[in-house]
Amino acid sequence: MITTKDLTKVYRSRGREVTALDGVDLHVREGEVYGVVGTSGAGKSTLIRCVNMLERPTSGTVTVDGLELTGLPGQEHRAGRDLREARRRIGMVFQHFNLLASRTVQQNVELPLEIMGLDRTQRRRKAAELLDLVGLADKARNYPSQLSGGQKQRVGIARALAGDPKVLLSDEATSALDPETTRSILALLRDLNRQLGLTVLLITHEMDVIKSVCDSAALMRGGKVVESGELTELLATENSELARELFPLGEFGHGRPGNTVLEITFQGDTSAQPFVSQLARTYQVDINILGAAVEHIAGRMVGRMRVELPGGHQDNVVPIGFLREQGLQVDVVNEANGAVA
Amino acid sequence: MTWDQMQELMWPATAETLQMVGVATVFTVLLGLPLGLLLVLTDRGGALQNVLLNRVIGVIVNVGRSLPFIILMVALQTFTRTVVGTSIGWQAASVPLTIGAIPFFARLVETSVREVDGGLLEAVHSMGGGTWTTVRKVLLPESLPALVSSVTTTIIALIGFSAMAGTVGGGGLGTLAVQYGYQRFETTFMWVIVAELVVIVMAIQLIGDILVRRLTHRDQATGVTRLLRSRRDQTVEDEELVLPH
């Protein structure tokens, strides 16, 4: 649905060059919620702005719903007609909502419909529908200044959906909200994704956002995508940085010297198997559980457990093989410093 | 000088002042508003970025603002005659008043429009809006309270300028005050006129402030006003609790 190829953005000011995007390849499939996570300055904000050409990339291509936007004419601050048409089919929500203070909630939602050239009756009907969809039908005549942050963002979302877009871009939409409001806004995005088949590309600096709504994620650092993929795949990938961030085990014990410490990750059905007792019975090993956690990620049950087996790595090759046969992901933790080998 | 005599002179002069200021205000807004917008739009990073044009307009505006009004009025005499057909009377005075006020107002417009949050422009761009849409749907409506306040300031400045119009036969209250109060030592009459001007200025400021308050939908109250407002709201709540329903 959204594809970027070798996307580069270089800012030049007073002879100095700053590379905000450095060859970013992104592939967002239709109907998924895709999260880009990274610290501030990682280039994620530039990336999402390049998707609807609010920033024109220095090189590379952006394709949204089969249309190559980078091929459409227009300068940085003045888009050509074709690009403006294309943008009407891409909704965008912002961190600071960007609602017009001079307009009521309903008039704010009507703004994109005015731009599209709908008449008054059509606009009213559509705006009422959209406000109903985001649960703000009773606030239509209020001004944004009379709303809470969460309500403002709901208006922002209703407005972004006015053009019946297939794609919704979310630029840190929950970063200015408290945790509870964040959850409700994320739930709304998830609902819209399911109900309308909306493809959502969101950027955030919070792992929790990725964990609660995303199907896929990309980690950005220094203008590059360091890691990307479906969350379930990432969790099954050994030494995945995103997986570790998504599902930190925290301060679990590191075991005694000389023993082997394993980190076992299990997803979906495998979490129902009593593999610990099976392992103990079959191989007569004493298993010491150092720590364990279970979470819902991308709508699936995911668990991680750190266990200690007596003896070095060589002594435990067979039990480790057994665990891997069960469909479990097993990382061997170096007993000396606790890092993954 | 009796009160009746004063009145006989004052009302026509008041009408002249209001007419020249009124006409000048209309044309100042019509010409100064686009000029102010152009100053913003052609600036670096603006939708119509054109650094050369921006510089040229900037210089013209600065020159216009630094010329003393009296000099402007004399210098424009020929131009005034071609525009309105005469170089005396309130009609003639409204021409230099307009020309003098345009750069002043344009700068006020520029400042007001710059206050509009850039995020709003980005939002409109993301909806597929072009430059004209951002001007019509965002820049002007969002800065409307500030623009109204700029118009108020401009009208008051024009009333001040209009007093000088008397020196070239422009008429109006200023002329009257100079002719009778200054030249014929009718001090009382002069103070009456000054008082009238004060009342007019205060009335315009009041109307402007009321309009601005009505047009403002964001919570702009700061410091003391916010404190007062919250306290007042609290009192209302307390009363509601006490009142029997």
Word description of this protein:
The complex is a heterodimer of chains A (341) and B (245). Chain A has 341 residues and is of the alpha/beta class. Chain A folds into 2 domains: 2-236, 3-Layer(aba) Sandwich (Rossmann fold); 247-333, 2-Layer Sandwich (Alpha-Beta Plaits), CATH 3.30.70.260. Helix content of chain A is 32%, strand content 29%. Chain A contains 11 helices and 14 strands. In chain A, strands 6-7-8-3-9-10 form a 6-stranded mixed beta sheet, sandwiched between helices. A 4-stranded antiparallel beta sheet of chain A has the order 2-1-4-5, with helices on one face. In chain A, helix 4 (120-133) packs across helix 5 and helix 5 packs parallel to helix 6. The longest helix of chain A is centred in the middle third of the chain and has 18 residues, at 179-196. Chain A starts with a strand and ends in an 8-residue tail after the last strand. Mean pLDDT of chain A is 88; it is low at 336-341. By secondary structure, chain B is mainly alpha-helical. Chain B has one domain (3-242): MetI-like fold (Orthogonal Bundle), CATH 1.10.3720. Chain B has 10 helices and no strands. Chain B has helices at 3-41, 51-66, 69-75, 77-84, 90-114, 118-126, 131-162, 173-183, 187-215, 223-242. Chain B is elongated and about 70 Å long. In chain B, 39% of the residues are buried.
**Which stretches of chain A of 5+ consecutive residues score pLDDT under 50?**
336-341
CA radius of gyration of chain B is 23 Å
CATH architecture title of chain B: Orthogonal Bundle
The arrangement of helices and strands of chain B along the chain is HHHHHHHHHH
- The count of DSSP E runs of length 2 or more, i.e. the number of strands of chain A, is 14
Q: How much β-strand is present in the residues of chain B?
A: under 5%
Spatial arrangement of strands, main beta sheet of chain A: 6-7-8-3-9-10
Here the CATH topology of the largest domain in chain A equals Rossmann fold
Number of domains of chain B: 1
Point out poorly predicted stretches of chain B: 220-245
Q: What do we call the CATH topology of chain B?
A: MetI-like fold
CATH architecture of the largest domain in chain A: 3-Layer(aba) Sandwich
Describe the global form of chain A.
elongated
Q: Decide which structural class fits the backbone of chain A.
A: alpha/beta
What's the CATH class label of the largest domain in chain A?
Alpha Beta
Query: What is the fourth-level CATH superfamily of chain B?
Result: MetI-like
Task: Please tally the helical runs of chain A, counting DSSP H or I stretches of 4 or more residues.
Answer: 11
Q: Domains counted in the coordinates of chain A: how many?
A: 2
Helix tally of chain B? 10
